[in-house]
Amino acid sequence: MNKADIFDLYTDYLITSFSYTTATGLSAILDDAVSHDQVTRFLSQKDLTSKELWKVIKKTAREIESEEGVLIFDDTIQEKPHSKENDLICWHYDHTVGRSVKGINLLNCLYYANEVSLPVAFELVKKPIKFCDIKTKKEKRKSTITKNEQLRDMLTVCCKNQLKWRYVLADSWFSSAENMQTIHHTLEKYFILALKSNRLVALTKEDKAKGHFTRIDTIQWSERPVQGWVKGLTFPVLFHRQLFTNKDGSTGTLYLISNDINASKDTLETIYQKRWKVEVFHKSIKSNTSMAKSPARTVRTQSNHIFMSLYATARLEGLSVKKGLNKFALKAKLYIKATQMAFEQLQILRSETA
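The structure assignment produced for this chain is given below.
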């Protein structure tokens, strides 16, 4: 059996599995038509990178792409506290819990157009450089490249791939001046990003020229977006404050920035709302396609398993669109069918021993 066949089989295995995924497990459900050694060799032969992802995603991307498409950037951390530490599985700061956790850090570029989400580029945050922290005297790790640098590289690749898109969406972690300069000047695209409340801004050219900047959470707001300048940027931008109510009844404030200076309040809020699609995708890759449920031990096999999980989630997305079900409902349907078959098999075994 060739690598292409194993590629598809492994993808389907991830979509249909409900627990840990192993080479032995795939071999077993195929009645040893594929040996576990073949699966292991498939995961070990070469690094499956973002370039390989585009090759298998490209056809689908061309079918759904739109000039109004958006590129959504976000990272997610999958904890693996009991796995052996290496360049991939190591300590990362998780802003959702406010502390460092041991696990895998995935930076994902999700393309969203015509109601379909596709991962079109990704990077796994690896930390091969070991050093001693002066304060704690403990050994730590760091990467050779920052996530913001990875984001800019991925944006450049998306442009080279001639993918159609209009806006870049990301949270405040990626709203650096260099990222915005690159999107505006080099790529000539639009962005809508979140800003932290302490970001320094000026609302007039005079204040900018004099270096008079103030925190964004202290300016006077109206219903309409406000035009101004961010410290470190050479071009004018729009600021918008969005007030929202959380599920628990509490209120929150979101500060948005965009270089689309003609955008309205509704445009900014509606388009930035699409950023939530990456959160759903990350939940799906963890829950539906076994991102962390593999006993792979080497950095390459672990990385390639995550690649396959990314692609499997994209395949599941396409299937859910065709069937008119969301990914989680479709996965639940597969689970019910599998349970029904197991139940029927149990009845047969009982009747045989009666």
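Interim note for the steering committee: The chain has a mean pLDDT of 93. Residues 187-274 form one domain.
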